Amino acid sequence: MKRAQEKGLLEVHVHHLRQWAVNEYGQVDDYQYGGGAGMVMMCEPLAKAIEALSADRQYDEIIYLTPDGETLNQKISNTLSLKQTLLLICGHYKGIDERIREHFVTREISIGDYVLSGGELAAAVLVDSIGRLLPGVLNDETSALFDSFQDNLLAPPVYTRPEDFRGWKVPAILMSGDHKKIEEWRHEQSLQRTQERRPDLPDQL
Ligand code: ADE
What we know:
binds adenine, Alpha/beta knot, 6 helices, three-stranded parallel sheet, alpha/beta, two-stranded antiparallel sheet
């Protein structure tokens, strides 16, 4: 992601919500109505932040990272990589006031069924998975096409030198120079691996 930014292919700006705090103490959260442990991030700082940032840029999506969002997958990353500008909201504590979700947020994404202490790592994961899909970010531009999940298939096994390591040999087909056969073998390995490890992925046969 650093190189993508240096090449001007990706811009990431981090904005601290306390700039839009409700008082001089930097307050951005408060107790939840109805009682119960845990603080909730207030409407006002979030609304002000979203409005101030939207004045500078038109956002294609305003995404809230949250464990109750749709689970991130390659298809979502592919879709988001085609957008120009995204605003990612990282929650903390119990989350953000529901009214912000209703009135500003256009998409809610979880990076998996576990709870992080804040949305920042989830946002970093999302930015990384989107950023590497931008044309020119990867050295070999075609390589993202063959990633695991790109066709709902896991990637085939890969090997590099030496051909024989401690008697453990590289499959002979890969040394054959027959590119058609190699592609068939790789596809077969992908199918087999997907069936064994991720039978839940939609069928690609
Ligand atoms: N914030 C806390 N946990 C999260 C998760 N699993 N995904 C996205 N955002 C989160």
